[in-house]
Each structure stands twice: as C-alpha cells, then as structure tokens.
Specification:
The protein has 413 residues and is α+β, with helices and mostly antiparallel strands. Helix content is 32%, strand content 23%. A hairpin with a 2-residue loop joins strand 3 and strand 4. It has 11 helices and 18 strands. It has helices at residues 2-15, 19-27, 66-75, 110-117, 220-231, 253-261, 266-281, 286-296, 299-302, 321-343, 395-412, and strands spanning 36-43, 51-53, 81-88, 91-95, 121-125, 160-165, 171-174, 179-182, 190-192, 198-201, 211-215, 234-238, 246-249, 305-306, 318-319, 357-364, 367-375, 381-389. It has a 5-stranded antiparallel β-sheet with strand order 2-1-18-17-16. The protein has a 5-stranded mixed β-sheet with strand order 12-5-4-3-13, with helices on one face.
C-alpha cells in the first residue's frame, strides 16, 4: 500500500507540468490572446521529453540568440584569443582577432592596453577581410545608439565615444579625437552625421553623472588614430600578414560572458562570434563562426535555428523553443549551475524574492522572450524558454504574464 501511495505521489508530481496544463495556463492569460506563444520546459540533465506548447514553431529570438553565441565560444575551446603579436626589438607588431575589449568604456582589458603601451612603435597588420559594419536586416537608422555600433575586426573603445557630465557640469569626451559640436537648442541629447564622425551634443539634455555612448564610424584611418591616441606612440599600418607571431588569450572571459548575458551588449556579442570564426579558420568572420559552430552542434540545434548574427538584432534569426532547451542544456553541461548563476542575471523583473530563476531576455518590437534555468520550491531545476512574438499589447503586460509563468513553474514544477 505504501509503495502504491509513493508511486501515485511521484506520478502526480511529474504530471503537474504536463502539456495540457501549460496550454491551460496560456489560455488563462488575457495579455497573450493576440500573441504567438511558444513554451518549452524540461528537467535539467534528465532524459525526459520536452513539454510545452508550440515547441517546434520557429520564433523570433531577438537577444535570445546570444545564448547560441555564448555556446559557440564555449564549444570553440572557451579560450578567447585577444591578439596576435610579435616583438621585434622595441617594435610591437599586432594583428586583430575580433576581440572587443581594447579600451572598452565599460569592460576594459587593462593587460591588452598595457601590452600596446609597452612598445615604442606599433605596426598594425590589418585584417585581410573586412566585417560588414551592420548585420543582415539590422535597422539602418539606429547608428547613433549604443545598441547598434559598427562591427569591426579591431573594436577600440567599444566602437563608441563616451560622453559624461561631471559634478561641475563639464562634459568629458573619451576618446577626444572627433569633431564635437555643442548645441543647447537641439531637441536631442546627441546626433551624428550618417557618413562622417561629426557629433552634436546638447549639454542641457545630459544630467550630472550621466553617460552617453555613441557609435563612431570605423575605418582604417580611425583605427590608426585611435591606436596612436591610446599608446602615444608611432603607429604604422600594413596590409601584410603577421608571420611567426604569438597569441595572447583573454584573462577576463567572465567579463565578456557577463556583458553579453547580463547587459545584452550587442557589439561584444558580434565580436565574440567573429572571434569564434577566427579561432576555427584564422579569419575574423561572423559567418564562419556560425557555420563552424553549427557543424559541431547536435542536429536538434542545427535544424532548429536560422542564425544570422551574434546579437539578435537581425529579424532574419529564427529559433525553435525546443532548440533553446538543447542550447541551455549544452551550456549547463560545460558550466554547471554555479557558473550559470554567476554569469546569468537572476529573477527577471521580480524583486524582493530569493533567486530561483536565471535567464536571458530577448526583445525586439512586438517580440519578447525569456529563456534560462529555473528552480522549483522542491529544489528541482528545469531549463525553459517562453517566447512571445507578434503581440500588440503593452510590453509591461507581456512581462506580467512571464512573471506569472515563472511563479507557476516555481510552485508546480
């Protein structure tokens, strides 16, 4: 009799998150009536079927594609090559790898900057292939916004200028090598001419201790000027390949992963995927990073994604929620829960609640997703993905439903 009761209890627990109950939860959400909703859920590290609704539907992932970018880096060896270099007496020859943290305004790699400053002369061996400055189907008119900087083989200062306002009301610009105009009559805090590094700032629209990050236009000339600005040394550019070089690897990969997962930094995501392409092929290439990564992933992921960039800005990207589950499970296999909890933000928009969910959001207009790892009240962990596309209600209403879903899983898992 006790055995029967035990089996019944176990059956009921496993049935609590059945497909039909998840469907009923979706039906109960008035906020989701006019949206396309896909949900996938599976106990972590267990060979159980994925439960949910529309788990094989292709959805617009937005920044959820960054999960795949992080996995791409992990699968390439989890050692991020930051620079090719060679010393010839007091002359430092360098060649880029796509690495994004040289003098980055938020996540600087101090070791890399110090290496450049240690030489008397820099010889910059330019990449033979140029990265397209914007990804496929990116919005062209976002060129003045931090979330849409130009991609390049050697990002410097995050490919943005940083403008801050001190307590005394003084504007500070870093790097201060471009034309900056002040205009207190402008209706915007900042503008930039589309095809030239000419910026206009309205100081009255910048609050004390505010920070503006504005993309600049990348060119060989600009890279040369920035390298001179950083090192205060002579910089010579060459088109020849750097031979007999050494590689330096980043000692701060966690900064990169946290910038992507916690802050959803788009340039760092694009650069990391280009760096993956470099790791596999010696060519700084986002496309090659995508292709080589897919070759190494299981068919469930290969067949479940249409992948075009590293950040999710492209509306060409599509992902099946069940593929997100496999991606998350692969990250778990490499990192384990403790590293996941260090690198993922927790608790979505929930406040004053003990951490029980660690995940990545993904937002484009009329699309909002949240995927990650969740723990129920019994201490059982799941991987999950909830993807809500093509909604016409307020984003706050969609977020409210996602919170309800997370609490539902926490109670019933």
């Amino acid at each position: 009799m006790r055995l029967l009761i035990f089996l019944l209890i176990g059956f009921n627990l496993n049935a609590q998150l059945s497909n039909s109950k998840i469907k009923r939860w979706v039906s109960s959400q008035d906020n989701l009536k006019n949206a396309y909703v896909s949900i996938a859920l599976k106990p972590i590290q267990k060979n159980k079927k994925i439960k949910g609704v529309n788990i094989s539907k292709f959805m617009t992932p937005a920044s959820n594609i960054k999960l795949l970018t992080v996995l791409a880096s992990i699968k390439s060896g989890d050692s991020i090559n930051s620079l090719k270099y060679k010393f010839d007496s007091d002359t430092l020859h360098i060649s880029p790898t796509g690495y994004p943290l040289l003098e980055h305004p938020l996540y600087p790699d101090l070791e890399l900057a110090n290496l450049l400053r240690s030489a008397n002369t820099i010889v910059y061996h330019k990449s033979s292939e140029k990265i397209e400055r914007y990804g496929p189907a990116w919005a062209w008119d976002d060129f003045t916004e931090y979330f849409s900087p130009e991609r390049s083989s050697l990002p410097i200062y995050g490919n943005v200028i940083m403008i801050t306002k001190s307590e005394k009301g003084e504007l500070r610009v870093k790097p201060n090598i471009f034309n900056i105009h002040l205009d207190s009559t402008s209706n915007k805090s900042h503008t930039r001419k589309e095809n030239i590094n000419d910026f206009t700032i309205n100081p009255l629209k910048i609050k004390l201790n505010d920070t503006l990050l504005i993309p600049y236009i990348v060119s060989d000339e600009t890279i040369n000027r920035l390298l001179k600005h950083i090192t205060q040394k002579e910089v010579i550019s060459k088109s020849s390949e750097l031979m007999d070089s050494k590689k330096i690897y980043s000692k701060i990969p966690e900064k990169i992963y946290q910038a992507i997962l916690k802050k959803s930094d788009n340039l760092i995501s694009e650069s990391l995927l280009a760096n993956v392409g470099y790791t596999y092929t010696d060519t700084i290439s986002i496309r090659k990073g995508i292709d080589k990564t897919l070759e190494k992933l299981m068919p469930e992921i290969q067949n479940g994604v249409e992948w075009f960039d590293g950040s999710g800005l492209s509306r060409y990207n599509m992902v099946q929620p069940q593929a997100i589950i496999y991606i998350l499970n692969e990250i778990y296999n490499h990192w384990g829960l403790e590293k996941i909890k260090e690198n993922f933000p927790n608790n979505y928009i929930l406040e004053d609640k003990q951490a029980f969910v660690w995940g990545k959001t993904g937002t484009l207009r009329n699309n909002h997703n949240y995927s990650g790892f969740i723990k129920n009240k019994k201490g059982k962990y799941y991987v999950f993905s909830i993807m809500i596309n093509h909604f016409n209600s307020d984003l706050s209403d969609i977020k409210e439903s996602i919170v309800d879903f997370l609490l539902y899983v926490n109670r019933n898992g």
